[in-house]
Amino acid sequence: MIFNKDTAKKTAEVLLQVNAIKLSPKAPFTWASGWKSPIYCDNRIILSFPTIRNYVRETMAKYIEQHYGKPDAIAGVATGAIGIGMLVADYLNLPFIYVRPDAKGHGRKNQIEGFIEKGQNVVVLEDLISTGKSSLNAVKALRDGGISIKGMVAIFSYGFKISEENFEKESVELHTLGNYETLLEQALQTNYITESELKLLTEWNANPSEWNAI
Fold it and tell me: Which of 55, 57, 102, 200 has the fewest CB atoms within 10 Å distance of its CB?
């Protein structure tokens, strides 16, 4: 669920502006999963643009305050949400922790980095939601550590049906600044894409795992 339509439109505008999101229907990208995709999103790029990172930081922080009150800490999902998670935690004057995909194989063998106590609660921050698998892996690690999850807030979501099902199954409330539908509307309005490219991008989103056969 997006924060609101105005925020989603502004988020699409700034992500396209700094090429954090690239649309390339004629020369698709290949994701780590092997999926062919006409879109690639790297929200870490926003950290290099002070005005935009401040917009994202303040919008996420104010939403967390309004929707969740004050959690005990902010938890970022490594590695994409470490930077923005630290900024949001700093804005809210809250502790910050982050969650690795797996526990380290050496040292203290931590999966959760930073200080937090069992029974405390967090809002989890993510930069990007695709299927939700890695995000929910972080949620599981936190829950296994006795941490309560108030919800998850992300910068952008592709809006795949499978991700909605995964979050519902794990009873995790997800809210995002921007989404795929609004991104395409903004891209078309600014002539970033054509009507024919819009059709192709819409078809991909409806069935991304099979789109490489198209």
Answer: 102
SS3 state at 106: coil
Can you give the pLDDT at residue 110? 87
The span from the CA of 72 to the CA of 209, in Å, is: 38
Distances (CA, A) of 22 to 25, 48, 57, 115: 10, 17, 22, 36
Buried b or exposed e, range 61-96, using 16+ CB within 10 angstroms: bebbeeebeebbbbbbbbebbbbbbbbbbebbebbb
Q: What is the pTM of this model?
A: 0.93
Residue partners of 128: CB distance under 8 A and separation at least 6: 41, 43, 80, 154, 155, 156, 157, 158
Q: Which amino acid is at 29?
A: F
Q: By three-state DSSP, how is residue 164 classified?
A: helix
CATH architecture classification, 5-213 = 3-Layer(aba) Sandwich (3.40)
CB atoms within 10 A of CB 30: 11
| Tens-place pLDDT, residues 19-39 | 998 888 788 898 877 888 998
User: What span, in angstroms and rounded, lies between the C-alpha atoms of 108 and 51?
Assistant: 37
Cβ atoms of residues 78 and 101 within 8 Å = yes
C-alpha to C-alpha distance for 64 and 35, rounded to whole angstroms = 33
Q: Which two tokens stand for residue 168?
A: 């519902």
